[in-house]
Amino acid sequence: MSSHLQPASSPIVEDDAFIESMLADASIPTLIMSLVHITGDVSFLRGSIRPKTPQMGEVQGGLTEEEKASVRKTALTVLKAFRDNGCKLPPPPSEEVVREMMNFLVGTEVPADYMPLVLEELALDGKDSRVPAWRKEVPDALKRDYHVVVIGAGMSGLLSAMRLKEAGISFTVFEKNDSVGGTWYENRYPGCRVDIPNHFYSYSFYPNHDWNEYFSRQPELAAYFERFAQDQGLAEKIHYNTEVVSAKFDEASGIWSIAVRESGGAIRTVLANAVISAVGQLNRPMTPKIPGQETFKGVQVHTGAWPKGLDLTGKRVAVIGTGASAFQIVPELAKIAGELTVFQRSPVWMFPNPDYHATVGESKKWMLKHVPFYARWYRFLMFWPGSGIALNRWRIDPAWPHPERAVCEANDQERIHLTAWISDQVGDDPELLKKVIPQYPVGGKRMLQDNGSWLRALKQPNVELVTEAPKAFDETGVIGQDGRHYPVDVIVYATGFHANKFLWPMEIVGRGGVKLNEFWGDEPRAYLGITVPGFPNLFCLYGPGTNLAHAGSIIFNSECQVRYSVACIKSLIEGGYRQMDVKPAVYGEFNDRLAKELSTLVWSHPSVNNWYKNSKGQVVNTSPWALSDYWKWTRSPEVEDYEWR
Q1: Top-level class of domain 140-284+499-644
Q2: pLDDT for res 4
Q3: Which residue spans adopt a coiled-coil conformation according to this UniProt entry (predicted)?
Q4: What residue ranges of the chain have pLDDT lower than 50?
Q5: pLDDT by residue (tens digit) across 195-207?
Q6: Which of 112, 138, 158, 544 makes an SS bond possible with 524, Cβ 3.0 to 4.6 Å?
């Protein structure tokens, strides 16, 4: 049993009054799951108290206060008896009962094709079933002689390193920064935080029961990945301040030759049997070209490259962009800037999330640590609303009569609901209201969330929202499209990243001297988002067509992709092969299906201009698949999908 996946990380030893106080803020549906485990009594699932299907982040299932109080009273009795009996659990529930528990918790029938995935995620047996397992005996010396280079020590790179270590395969990690964490090391701007619930935005096998916020800020996330690297003993394998410049495949030997630039500027070459690219998508800041940039005499900074020690107190600040990073930084800057001008090309849809900045109480941390299986079921409660089951609300209905505002009836209802929520926040300012209601269908761009802080910030007397992009800069400020001059001291680019330049700026050269960037052009594709024909033994994590805009956590996707990539490498070693190359027909068929599926979803709507699209208007970045499908496809490679040499 994994030490991190035990039913509870600590026994219950506290007195009755303390336990009662800890139950006050418990998720009652989750608590009922624990009661079934502790007592073996399935009648908890068959009474009159039944949760409703949860919305994103909602953990009480719509239960009344009377219903919650009743469960707490019962739970207190059960937990006291459990404590007094030495915290001994009865035999585990059968799979049939577990299925009933799933359905109860989420207030609906969990589809049969989701069951294997959910059982693996729950890990009720305490085992991490994603640990690499060899299909046949392989000498340790053979594993050690096989060398894998992992590019990047962010979330996916660290995960790759851990799984390779578990498999006994030799590896080296190259990281361009001076620490681990990737995105959560580089993005240090004020207000930076995750927008997926933290108890799901974490490795499935390495939970953190001490998150201080439901949507943690950058420092706590960076610390999580630093701690993970230390706990797994990965530090000695990571070369910091070392950037991969290029990788070239030699067909005769089946070896990749990787050029790396060290901190002093020297270039050296490293050889590898396989390469895992874990460079991510959102790590190369994109700064728009605006006339006069070079003449501005103040400070210019991108949110993705925020310098340490930058103090904007009392400054006149311009923020360009109103996407995800702007939603987080603007409320913080509004508190300290003398004047804040926000330049918006178009407003974005947001959904209400009252817990977005909320702290996790000590009672909730105690429940996660002490009550058996509470943490596992709580994670499932976070997982389910984002599993892709609600994707149809973003599916284009060709018969829908109002495509100018929505893609289907459910999408239109979502628009009405979100418009009403925004109106409740700023309805007292008709001019501002007109500026913040989007025209495109809900879901067409990255969905943002707000607890009211964004809209409140825009109403502050020191904040002005300009509904156009800047026309130019001069020495002292920004010039608007109408010629108005905005004097500023600092320009902040909240303009995103080169998300569709996968593996850029590295030069990747495959068979026949083909360069990956030229092979892709403006239409990057990969089989399962991972492998590309002509580039044997190269595995892309968070590759084309794998961004999650509708569901889930990118960590979930990474666990799928790393499992697949390491399984491929194991197959190479077990079979004595030097190369595996995805068949062009397999690659083509998958990407035809991908393009067809994407064309049915809101991201492809002609009125939408988003960063998921390339210059031709094709969506190349996002995944349209249900999490259960992608999980199933990436459990292990199909031998017939590849050419083996």
Answers
A1: alpha beta
A2: 74
A3: none
A4: 1
A5: 999 999 999 999 9
A6: 544
